Amino acid sequence: MTSLLCLSTPSDAHRWSDERRRDGQSIGLVPTMGALHRGHTALIERSQALCNLTVVSIFVNPTQFDRSDDFDLYPRTLDDDIALCDSLGVNAVYTPTVDAMYPDGFDTTIDPGSLTYRWEGEHRPGHFAGVATVVTKLLTAVQPHIAVFGEKDFQQLAVIQHVVRDLGLPVTVVGEPTVREGDGLAMSSRNVHLAPGARAQATSIKHAIDRALDRSTSTGSPSDIVEQVTTDIQQAGGTVDYVAVVDRLSLEPVADLNNNTQLLVAAWFGGVRLIDNAALVATE
Ligand code: AMP
Questions:
Q1: Using CA positions, which residue lies closest to atom 7 of ligand 1?
Q2: Does residue 178 have its Cβ closer than 6 Å to ligand 1?
Q3: CATH class of the structural domain 194-279
Q4: Cα(59)–Cα(57) distance, rounded to whole angstroms?
Q5: At what angle do helices 154-167 and 127-142 cross, to 10 degrees?
Q6: Is 17 helix (H, G, I), strand (E, B) or coil?
Q7: What's the pLDDT tens digit per position in 45-64?
Q8: Which of the four, 34, 212, 262, 273, has the lowest number of CB atoms within 10 Å?
């Protein structure tokens, strides 16, 4: 049992937040889909460093899944998640039901525009409209001063910053660096689906990124880097969705490295889709 406050409807969250704001408290929100791991913990700790109160939302949002099997199989560990939030000193968890988020007749979608045309948006149709809509609803209910997102989902972070700016939402979006396993694999709730063989192969993503980082400070051009990373992952047994070197703000591919370029990777290992990214900095 936990004494942690559980908010389960948008109006509960709104009322709680109104009262805390009236008391002069600052509120940080960490939106998650649960199955919490150390990546999420880092976001929570960042929020706690920046605000008096931290809310963690846990909602497996059906509208951002482009495949129903992915939604059905998404790991759900709510009791453990709540216990972890309690042990970390989180002030409230917000765990709305699908019906509370999307009542009968719900028919409004936020279309985040051109930042979503490529990469995840291209490979997962409708994904970012689902993300933008649910995040806007979470922000509206919890009314946080800041919201913390992981750089692991680099395009998602860019899209949310864009939506917040375009809609003039009164919240500061904070990005938190990617937390990795000891062997470099970016932590993800989906990693539990990796069979041992695929789990071993998946470390090739970080190895390929590290090799790209070495080349970016020596002779590598974006096209060479894309080819090298793609080949490294394929040789390890992965199936690449995309590898790209992009401008960090526009997410458009670049012909030359500069101090604003990012490497984006998405690849499948044994039926599990993983994404990762890293800043590439040209030193010459
Ligand atoms: P999710 O529960 O996967 O939707 O992720 C919730 C938040 O945690 C998002 O802002 C993610 O970018 C972030 N996140 C997920 N994995 C990591 C990680 N390994 N390191 C840092 N942040 C992460």
A1: 32
A2: yes
A3: alpha beta
A4: 6
A5: 60
A6: helix
A7: 999 999 999 999 999 999 99
A8: 273
Q: 229 alpha carbon to ligand 1 midpoint, in Å?
A: 23
Query: Residue 216: what residue type?
Result: S
- What is the whole-number distance in angstroms between the Cα of residue 39 and the centre of ligand 1? 6
- The token duo for 4 is 């942690």
What percentage of the chain exceeds 90 in pLDDT?
Answer: 94
pLDDT digits (tens, 9 = 90+) for 180-198: 999 999 999 999 999 999 9
Contact call for residues 238 and 268 (beta carbons, < 8 A): yes
- Name which residue sits closest to atom 22 of ligand 1, judged by CA: 150
For ligand 1, whether the C-beta of 153 sits within 6 Å is: yes
CB 11 within 8 A of CB 129: no
Question: What's the helix, strand, coil split of the chain in %, to 5?
Answer: 45, 20, 35
Structure tokens at 180: 């990795």
Give yes or no on whether 5-176 and 194-279 have one common fold: no
Which residue(s) pair with 96 in the sheet? none
For the chain, the structural domain boundaries read 5-176, 194-279
Q: Among 55-64, 134-143, 217-226, which stretch is predicted with the lowest mean pLDDT?
A: 217-226
Would you place residue 283 in the very low, low, confident or very high pLDDT band (cuts 50, 70, 90)?
A: low
pLDDT at 215: 74
Specify the range with the lowest mean pLDDT, choosing from 2-6, 58-62, 72-76, 79-83.
2-6
- Atom number of ligand 1 nearest to Cα 30: 7
Cβ–Cβ contacts within 10 Å for residue 149, how many?
Answer: 24
DSSP, res 165:
H
Residue 236 pLDDT grade (very low, low, confident, very high; cuts 50, 70, 90): very high
Which numbered atom of ligand 1 lies nearest the CA of 40? 8
CATH class as words, domain 5-176: alpha beta
C-alpha 22 – ligand 1 centre gap (Å): 30
Give the integer Cα–Cα distance in Å for 117 and 177: 24
Residues acting as catalytic residues: 40
